[in-house]
Amino acid sequence: MRRIAVAVVALSLLAACDGAASPSGPPPATAPAASPPAPINAVPAPGPRLYPAMAADPTTNGLLLFGGASVSGDLNDTWRWVNGAWSQIDAFPAPPPRAFAGVATDEADRSVVLFGGEEGATTTVGDTWLWDGAAWHAAAGGGPPGRSGTAIAYDAATRQVVIFGGAASGGRLADTWLWSAPSWNESHPPASPPPRTLGAMAYDPETAEVVLFGGTGDAGDLGDTWAWNGHTWHALSPAASPPPRSGASLAYDPAVHGLVLFGGSSHGNPLQDTWRWDGTTWSPLPGSPAPPPRNLAGLGYDATTGALLLFGGQGNTGALGDGWRWRDGRWSPVGAG
Fold it and tell me: What tens digit of pLDDT does each residue of 72-96 get?
């Protein structure tokens, strides 16, 4: 996969102090003592990055974030988002640094599954790592061929993790693989979406199917909607759809009883629109205020705050490190980053 360039924005901070001559003699006895400046409590947060691997952590009911691409290179740091705050986890061993990895919560195994990705902007990998709530463990055995930008989601109906497509050295893929701990198995459904990378995929409890939207195909950005029913893929024909895009973020929001899609990229331009999938069609949602335009951002449902969290991504100025909460039908910044 061609790595998206991360722009560097230099910020200059200037400060000046103006002094005045002090009058001679001691200060009046009634002069109040100068108050010390209020302390600044810096909350640690992940740095700016695009395509971080983010999924629900079943051991905390919060979110787990791993790696991504930054201006200094690929990352392999691990973070938790619980009760509205970030905390870094000193996890060792950890998966090697990477971006464009696939990640999903395996509710059946109470673990987070990390698969593949891209190392050093040149090499796709096909390793599988599992997060058990305290540490990462490399999964034994084979699996799908190495790839980056794969679509991935947990299928609660079949209790399996599903991946579709992605980009390998030979081009875009259109294969389907299923993870049921402790191994991967390739599925050979009678119907399948066209090859693509950077598609948005999530499980919809309302229809008990995994929904796949868009991505980049061999002829450009896609705007089609597909569903996986545990046995095969079938194309959907909604009355309305978001414009074609790749790298959008998609997650289920129990409050709206549907999937929420945000942003992505169209012809290389980051987007900032919000859409809802109700099981039958897509509809635009109010977006004011809205997060700045971005694609390749992390998005997940945080049960500890009852809200979706959007973090990072690729914006008009490069990698982003801000966090936004989607709750009660609107976006609000959370100051994460």
Answer: 999 999 999 999 999 999 888 999 9
State the CATH number of the domain containing residue 179. 2.120.10.80
Please give the residue range of the domain that contains residue 305.
Answer: 53-333
CA distance linking residue 270 with residue 165, whole number of Å: 22
Could you give the number of structural domains in the chain?
1
What does the block give as tokens for 56? 């629900």
The C-alpha angle 150, 151, 157, rounded to 5 degrees, equals: 140
Q: Residue 120: its pLDDT value, please?
A: 87
DSSP β-ladder status, 233-236 and 220-228: antiparallel
**29 lies in some domain:** no
Q: What is the pTM of this model?
A: 0.87
In a domain, residue 241? The reply is yes
Using the predicted structure, report yes or no on whether residue 232 has a pLDDT greater than 60: yes
CA distance 336 to 278: 29
Q: Evaluate whether residue 169 is within a structural domain.
A: yes
pLDDT at 335: 63
**Cβ partners under 8 Å of residue 32, min gap 6:** none
Phi then psi for 174, rounded to 5 degrees?
-140, 30
* φ/ψ bin of 186: left (φ > 0), alpha (ψ from -120 to 50), beta (otherwise): beta
